[in-house]
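Input record, target 12 of the design panel.
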């Protein structure tokens, strides 16, 4: 779909009145009318628990290799995982700021501090490249499932992989993840970066021998160009962020790891102890995969919400209209310009939208100003520094408790909220250079001060 005719747009607005606010780039809160009971929803799914388990096993096979080549993962024996922490001071601050009690506990999942690439992309991105490497090595009888995969850290394997190349389009963090792991294995890797991508991410990749190609256009264009380049070269493997099942499964493995962490913290999730998870959404693979994995484990006891910038509400638009990847925010005159670079996506993944539709509770949007203010507040209250994109989930519990009353009533949750748990998925930030961290913080501080005047 290109530019939408004025008359057609009016028909749409009549059908979906929320579009007016979306187009004005106001913050919105949307409940998914197509959410289903897990047992009926799962019947429509192209992916299963078995697929997620397979991905989990593959990551275990690679753990000895990861531990060897990325020493920062030694402590976790080569498993790439992030902390789950309680954030009680931030909770107090949110309650004060939004004049709204948050019933239940508030925790932060610190994917910002995932080793190797410092964002949620260290899950899906790294997983997909490992799977590709394993496929190639199996095909050429260089590796068997029984081997200790640390043998991949050798000139023999690096020379073998150097005959192959990898390409990916990215707003930054996926490129970082794919670039680092591909170069480590020995692949030739090209990252096609959208205009939003931060300079430090490009510099870091170039320092690791990754080819970085820059575009003036947005994410969809970078992906398209990457795909064209890969298509012309049979030895090139394209990581397709818009359609990849492997990326999605890599993200989904997060769920079983989270379950263990919740148990260690003695947090119960069941019929009477609901779990709410708030996930920043770009093209959809990261939040979609994590939400899918969580639904497989906790079924109707977990409630997942996606969060997008007011200037890039692509998944919300695709889900609400049912058009998925056949519509972009630009079609409606929304500019897709946001400082939340990880979420600067104008057109969602159709695969993710359709897969997650029966499972997603809702979706809301957040302004860039809010992201900066929340960023500053999280540093002040908990000493944790995230990148702007990663704060999109933070406002979710306050919004749910005010704008999601219908949802809570419909699912008989109102009485259970005080025994519930809210998890904010903090999707990135630990690798942001110190100087930029200070700039982000300063921006949040200025916005907070402006408001007090
Ligand atoms: C990529 C990214 C997301 C969202 O993931 P998608 O798969 O694009 O939906 C969220 N936060 C950060 C920091 C990211 O880099």
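The sequence produced for target 12 reads:
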């Amino acid at each position: 779909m290109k530019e939408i005719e004025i008359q057609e747009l009016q028909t749409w607005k009549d059908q979906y009145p929320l579009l007016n606010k979306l187009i004005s780039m106001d913050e919105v809160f949307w409940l998914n009318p197509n959410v289903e009971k897990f047992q009926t929803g799962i019947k429509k799914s192209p992916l299963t628990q078995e697929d997620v388990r397979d991905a989990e096993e593959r990551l275990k096979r690679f753990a000895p290799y990861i531990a060897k080549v990325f020493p920062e993962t030694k402590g976790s024996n080569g498993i790439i995982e992030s902390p789950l922490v309680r954030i009680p001071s931030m909770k107090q601050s949110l309650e004060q700021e939004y004049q709204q009690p948050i019933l239940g506990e508030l925790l932060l999942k610190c994917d910002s501090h995932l080793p190797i690439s410092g964002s949620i992309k260290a899950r899906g991105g790294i997983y997909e490249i490992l799977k590709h490497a394993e496929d190639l090595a199996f095909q050429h009888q260089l590796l068997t499932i029984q081997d200790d995969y640390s043998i991949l850290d050798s000139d023999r394997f690096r020379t073998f992989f150097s005959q192959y190349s990898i390409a990916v389009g990215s707003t930054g963090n996926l490129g970082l993840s794919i670039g680092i792991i591909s170069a480590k294995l020995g692949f030739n890797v090209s990252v096609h970066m959208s205009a939003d991508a931060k300079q430090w991410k490009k510099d870091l990749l170039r320092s690791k021998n990754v080819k970085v190609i820059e575009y003036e256009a947005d994410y969809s264009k970078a992906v398209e160009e990457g795909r064209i380049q890969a298509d012309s070269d049979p030895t090139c493997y394209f990581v397709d962020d818009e359609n990849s099942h492997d990326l999605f499964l890599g993200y989904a493995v997060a769920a079983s790891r989270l379950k263990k962490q919740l148990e260690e913290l003695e947090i119960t999730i069941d019929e009477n102890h609901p779990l709410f998870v708030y996930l920043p959404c770009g093209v959809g693979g990261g939040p979609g995969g994590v939400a899918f994995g969580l639904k497989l484990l906790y079924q109707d006891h977990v409630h997942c919400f996606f969060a997008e910038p007011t200037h890039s509400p692509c998944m919300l638009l695709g889900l609400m209209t049912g058009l998925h990847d056949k519509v972009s925010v630009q079609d409606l005159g929304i500019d897709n310009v946001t400082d939340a670079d990880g979420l600067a996506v104008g057109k969602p993944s159709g695969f993710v939208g359709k897969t997650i539709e029966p499972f997603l509770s809702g979706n809301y949007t957040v302004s860039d100003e809010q992201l900066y203010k929340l960023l500053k507040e999280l540093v002040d209250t908990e000493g944790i520094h995230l990148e702007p994109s990663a704060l999109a989930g933070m406002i979710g519990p306050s919004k749910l408790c005010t704008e999601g009353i219908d949802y809570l009533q419909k699912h008989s949750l109102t009485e259970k909220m005080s025994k519930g748990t809210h998890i904010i998925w903090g999707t990135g930030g630990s690798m942001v250079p110190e100087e930029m961290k200070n700039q982000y913080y300063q921006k949040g501080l200025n916005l907070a001060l402006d408001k007090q005047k």
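Residues 119-121, 173, 280-287, 342-343, 387, 389-390, 427-428 surround pyridoxal-5'-phosphate (CB under 6 Å).
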